[in-house]
Structure formats: structure tokens, C-alpha cells
Amino acid sequence: MLRKLMEKIMAKKKKEFLQEIAPVGEEEIDEIAKEVAEEEVEPFVVEADPVEQPEGKMDKQKFLDSIGLGERAGSQLAATKWEEYLGI
Fold first, then answer.
1. Rg of the Cα atoms in the chain
2. Domain residue spans in the chain?
């Protein structure tokens, strides 16, 4: 859903840009905007910086399993406990 919304927004922005720079008919602009909107867009992914694991400590999943949060590894509580365990 977010991807389609972003595509619509980008198509609209590109259409407005094309209208500003190209003195052509609206039909041509609509065709160009449709072509641009149909282009494949790479998803934007934010990846967390990996935290180096100190020697002698469990890896994240083993630690979370040991405290009963293994199935909720993405939760705020799990993140907080993991940071406390690492001493961050």
C-alpha cells in the first residue's frame, strides 16, 4: 500500500515537473507520467547498524530465547533487554 502511494506521489511530482519544463500538450504529459509511474521502483529499506558482539556473550537470538522474548525479537522490550545485556 505504501509503495503504491509513493508511486502515485512520485508520478504526480514528475508530471508537474514535466509540465513546467516541457511546453507540450497534456496528453503527452499524461502518457509520459504513466510510463514513469509504471517503472520499477526499488524499495527503500533502512537497516540498523550491526552491533558488535563482545566475546563470551550469547548472540541476540539465543539471549532473547533465554529470557523468553525469542518470538518477539523485534519488540521494544527485546531491544531494551538486548542493549542492557550488551551494556550499551
1. 23
2. 2-38, 49-88
| HSE-up (13 A, CA, CB side) for residue 20 | 6
Tell which residue, 12, 3, 87, 8, has the closest CA to residue 51. 87
**CA-to-CA distance for 63 and 80, rounded, in angstroms?**
12
Residue by residue, DSSP assigns 66-78 as HTT-GGGTTSHHH
The type of residue at 24 is V
Cβ 33 vs Cβ 14: under 8 Å: yes
Give the residue from 36, 38, 33 showing the smallest Cα distance to 20. Answer: 33
| Torsion on CA atoms 2, 42, 44, 10, rounded to nearest 10 | -50
pLDDT, tens digit (0-9, with 9 covering 90-100), for 54-84: 778 888 888 999 999 988 888 999 999 988 9
pTM of the entire predicted model: 0.41
